[in-house]
Amino acid sequence: AQKITQTQPGMFVQEKEAVTLDCTYDTSDPSYGLFWYKQPSSGEMIFLIYQGSYDQQNATEGRYSLNFQKARKSANLVISASQLGDSAMYFCAMREDLTGANSKLTFGKGITLSVRP
Amino acid sequence: EAGVVQSPRYKIIEKKQPVAFWCNPISGHNTLYWYRQNLGQGPELLIRYENEEAVDDSQLPKDRFSAERLKGVDSTLKIQPAELGDSAVYLCASSLVALAGVREQFFGPGTRLTVL
């Protein structure tokens, strides 16, 4: 079974509107972390936001927030007030065994977001 | 502060030729990762170093791929000989060991390899 699932086709959003990018995950480890990365056409993976499995509140970083629903195993990224520069690929990733030495990130296939002016 | 540096940015070779990629991590980061990203996919880990030691190379195709991280700083990833299926973007990332376990990874721009 895939550990990270991103099934949305290419997403489009109007500038200044909010958009939600979906991510579901699969793990039996009680200690894990969820990450979102942005990859513009330049190729570099840019860290956006992190949510730990034991965090009580949803993570927020500026215009980015993570809608973490642990029982449903979903960690959707919400981008508010979209900007043209938000057009990129977005990857959800997970690291299991946070208390151990393993620091392997498992990525989903990504979602393409296009912001329309 | 300089980010993760990779070179070359682009490389085109013919199959069966050797190729090497270089990575300079962020200063002070003891953990270094090499990922391969196929077209339309997310990155997949090839190898992870903690200082000079390769602590996870389970996904590295050892018959043709090799890596080294001399002195626990720069790293080189080599493919010999290259095959058509090796065409991909090769990403290097680094992180600092953090007690919280987050270990945010910082990525370089990648090397886009095309094997003809």
What is the topology?
The complex is a heterodimer of chains A (117) and B (116).
Chain A: E1 4-5, E2 11-14, E3 19-21, E4 24-25, E5 32-39, E6 46-52, E7 60-61, E8 64-69, E9 74-79, E10 88-96, E11 105-107, E12 111-116
Parallel strand pairs in A: 2-12
Antiparallel strand pairs in A: 1-4, 3-9, 5-6, 5-10, 7-8, 8-9, 10-11, 10-12
Chain B: E1 5-7, E2 10-13, E3 19-24, E4 31-37, E5 44-50, E6 53-56, E7 65-68, E8 75-79, E9 88-95, E10 106-107, E11 111-115
Parallel strand pairs in B: 2-11
Antiparallel strand pairs in B: 1-3, 3-8, 4-5, 4-9, 5-6, 7-8, 9-10, 9-11
Name its key features.
heterodimer; A: 117 residues; mainly beta; 6-stranded mixed sheet; 4-stranded antiparallel sheet; 12 strands; 0% helix; B: 116 residues; 7-stranded mixed sheet; globular
- The span between the termini of chain A is 38 Å
> Could you give the distance between the termini of chain B?
37 Å
Gross morphology of chain A is globular
List the secondary-structure elements of chain B in sequence, H or E: EEEEEEEEEEE
Please give the count of helices of chain B: 0
Task: State the secondary-structure class of chain B.
Answer: mainly beta
Instruction: Report low-confidence residues of chain B grouped into runs of 5 or more.
Output: none
Your description of this structure?
The complex is a heterodimer of chains A (117) and B (116). Chain A is mainly beta and 117 residues long. Helices cover 0% and strands 50% of the residues of chain A. Chain A contains no helices and twelve strands. Chain A has strands at 4-5, 11-14, 19-21, 24-25, 32-39, 46-52, 60-61, 64-69, 74-79, 88-96, 105-107, 111-116. In chain A, the strands form three sheets. In chain A, strands 2, 5, 6, 10, 11 and 12 form a six-stranded mixed beta sheet that branches. Chain A starts with a strand and ends with a strand. The mean pLDDT of chain A is 92. Chain B has 116 residues and is an all-beta fold. In chain B, 0% of the residues lie in helices and 47% in strands. Chain B contains no helices and eleven strands. Chain B has strands at residues 5-7, 10-13, 19-24, 31-37, 44-50, 53-56, 65-68, 75-79, 88-95, 106-107, 111-115. Chain B is globular and about 40 Å long. The mean pLDDT of chain B is 91. Classes of the chains: A mainly beta (117), B mainly beta (116). The A-B interface holds A 4, 31, 33, 37, 42-47, 50, 52, 91, 93, 95, 98-99, 101-105, 107-110 and B 3, 31, 40-45, 48, 55-56, 89, 91, 93, 95, 101-110, 112.
